[in-house]
Each structure stands twice: as structure tokens, then as C-alpha cells.
């Protein structure tokens, strides 16, 4: 810099470099906007090439297919993805486990991701490496406490007929009824026209809508809410009883009862089962690995800190950092 008789700070030099590169190469956002054009140019100049713009676009397309609640919408979403035939067949085989369009309507549950097991395993993490009786007692006490907390929650905080989370979900659907125009056919049937051009049929007596969201979730969809209000009814009364606070109370009414300590247990005299062999597995123990990793991270952090101090004093060339 001195040779060029230019007196600027290091930060100014980096900012100038970034701006120059942006002008030369374009920003990442700009480049993304050109991806389809680039693919088309490749196809034009190299006939017969297969170009797949995957990643996030495919992921989003797959989620749209998973969230589709009718078979017709599912087919539409699958065709949009332009998958090759093998992938198309594999996803279509049939998607009863991953797309709402093929879910059974009986359980009134349209959840795509079920984190119950992960959540439970995460909570019992502290107990999992303990000896068997200690572990079982830890889990039993945890469940005993949790069931009681759930019961107390319902009696102290929940004053409505519906459980709070379901009420929020229902409110979201009610907020969207402005998109729907209800046409009454008779006291139970409605035709609902939406501003997106779609049309659905609602049966208030059977509690169904042809979008299937009401049947799948047990909570009236926006089309159903529109018909319910038109009929001067309340959407809360049309939610499936599974989601009532009374049902929740019934589910949790059975308590896990306390037990006495080991000294008070009666002896059965039965032959105890043999414990499994506890041997050290091959390779480095997980604990040691973790120790090594944390030591390396600590060293790295110290190195960065030293560099920052040197840089502040103007003593550190860039290549010193790593
Ligand atoms: Zn609907």
C-alpha cells in the first residue's frame, strides 16, 4: 500500500475487494436468478443433456406433495416435480406413510412429523446409562411427575371446552374465511368457492369437506368454518371430541402410583435373570473422543483470540490466522 502511496485501513481494502468482486461476478442472489436460464442454455447447446436443479427446490416440492390433502392435489404436486420415472414410481408406492392425501381419516391426526419418540428419548437421556433398576425408577418417577403436572394444568389453567393448542389452530382457520364464499344448498350442504379458483363441498352433518382437512384433523377447515358461520353455528362445537379438555382429562386420569424403597420389597425367591456382558467395545471410548474434540476446539479458540489481539496491535498478517 505504501508503494502505491495509498493510505487506507485493512477493513477499507477488504470492503473495496468485496465490491469489486460483486461487480465482476454478480451477487449470489443475482446468480440464483439466472439458474434456469443457465440450464436452458446448457440444454440448447448440448442437446440430450439431463439437467436437474435439485436441492431446496426439490425439497420444497416434496413438502408440497406431503402436505397435499387430496389425491388430486398430490398428483398435481408430483407432476410438477418432473422426477424421472423410477423416482416417481418409488414415491408413488403408495404414499400412505408420508402424504396427507393418503392418510387414514379415522385417527383425526394429520401430523407429518411425529417427534414423540425423539422427545421422550431426549428427556430420559440422564437415565439411559444408569444400572437397570436406577434407570427404571428414574423413568417411573419422571412419568409419575409428568402425568400429575398434566392433570394440574387442566384443572388450574384450562377453562375452555377445547384444548388451547387446538383453539389456536381453529382460530387460524377462522381468520381465513374471508377467502371463501359459501353457497347454501340446504341445511347441511354448502358449496364453497375460493378466490384461488377452487371449489369445495361441505357437509355439516357428516362433518366433511372435500378438501379432506376436516376429516383428517377433526378441526373444521376454513371452508367448513365459512359454512358453519353461515348456518349460525359455532366452529368450537364442530371440533371432534378428541380435542376436548374432558377427553384430555380422561386420557391422563390414570396415575402411576408410588412404590416403597428396596428394603421394603417382599422377596419372591425366583431365579433372577442374568445381566448382559459389560465389556469395553473396540476403538476409542466415546468419552475420550469427546475430550479430544473439546481440547482441539479450545486450542482453536485460543488461537483465534491470540490472532485477534495481534491484529488489534497491527502485528498479524492474514496467513497467521490458521
Ligand atoms: Zn375444506
UniProtKB/TrEMBL annotation:
UniProt GO molecular function:
zinc ion binding
Task: Tell me the organism.
Answer: Sesamum angustifolium
PROSITE patterns annotated for this entry?
A: ZF_SWIM (PS50966)
Question: Per UniProt, which keywords does this protein have?
Answer: Metal-binding, Zinc, Zinc-finger
Q: Which InterPro entries match?
A: Znf_PMZ, Znf_SWIM
Name the SMART domains for this protein: ZnF_PMZ
Q: Where is the SWIM-type domain?
A: 200-232
Name listed for the protein in its UniProt record? SWIM-type domain-containing protein
